[in-house]
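Curious: why these numbers?
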Amino acid sequence: MTGLRSYLGTENISINTFYSVLFGLKILCAEEFPGFTIDDYEDLEFIPRPHSNSWGIYQEIDNVLDPLEKSMISKSLFEMGSDIHDGKLYQLKALRDAAILGLTYVTGARPVQLAKLAVRDFRLDTRSLNTGLIRYSILLPYAKQRRVTTERLFLAIPPEIGGLIMHYIERTQLAPDDKLFEMGSSAPEFVSNAINCAILTFSPPDYQAAVTRGEAAESIITPTDLRHNVGHSLAMQGASAEEIAHILGHSSLVAAKHYILATPALALIRAKALGVNPVWQNMVAMMLTGKLTSAQEWQGYRVTGVVGDQLHYDIGGCSRTDGKCPFCEVRCCYGCLYYRPFTDGDHQAVLDSVIKEVDELITISDGVGNARNPLISIHETTQFEIQSVIARCRFHKEKEAKNEKTL
């Protein structure tokens, strides 16, 4: 590691070589190969970059979080918050890991910022007994400043994340002046482990079992990945450079402007990810929902709901044992691990209803001057999830037909 860092500091190194070696080092540090740690990953940010007009790290779109990964994270955090509200008790470590993942996912905070958080930095701003609306905020300390500063970055956070943190504080009985998260000697390693433990917990059981058996590699997401995801997501939603710089705690607009410059390429990548590659679709579809079954064989609860102006039923079952689901039936089922799609269900009708909703939503959004309505991207993800189930059912039927011919 020391030798490679020294090599990156030489004056005659080309820009392409510099960033190629830097990329390789980041992979080695993220995977914690012998001699490389997650602390080294954070230190790589401080290596002087060669003089160039390209801010590639802020326009690097190959490693932006996939829409399905973001959907899994947000839905899992929401469901965990709903379970806690209903009285379910989680292990303290799982609760802490989820709180760290949620904070990093929505704020893009660096590990050193999370390490400096005190309990008093987390605030409950308003609570309405009539509507049940609760608003939370957090005061993040600035990082990577050239001078010592006591200023804090004031950010509102979603009630689901705020509820997780509030429950964590109550469970641990922390005092206002205590550290919110005790991270030991290495904040980057602690935060990275917490993020990936939480994501693995939220992943499908089949994938967790494969990772445990060593048959599948664990997906590694670093705090830096989540931070860049916040910047790119804000730019995709039309946020200004000033707004992006404020949320990420930047003292200038340079990085924010480069996030914005990457939005056309990001839009193209997202469009391709949402339906062009059928092989990739089938691979992802296997991990989105539960096992396929038929309407005749299923004896449990059957999913029924309205999408658009159409009632949809006999499309699948729900395998939840407690009978409580915090999500909207049918609309949210196609990306749920508890959903058991019926091979003979009319999933195409559900897809047609969602497509109709997307068209109407785009028309309304354009009419009011909000072409980047975030609901559009949510509907696009739902559309892809339904298409994946349709492809999976078709593959299952073709396989059955082939087996019958063989017999």
Notes: Confidence is low (pLDDT under 50) at residues 53-63. The domain at 67-265 is CATH 1.10.443.10 (hpI Integrase; Chain A). The chain has three domains: 2-54, 67-265, 277-406.
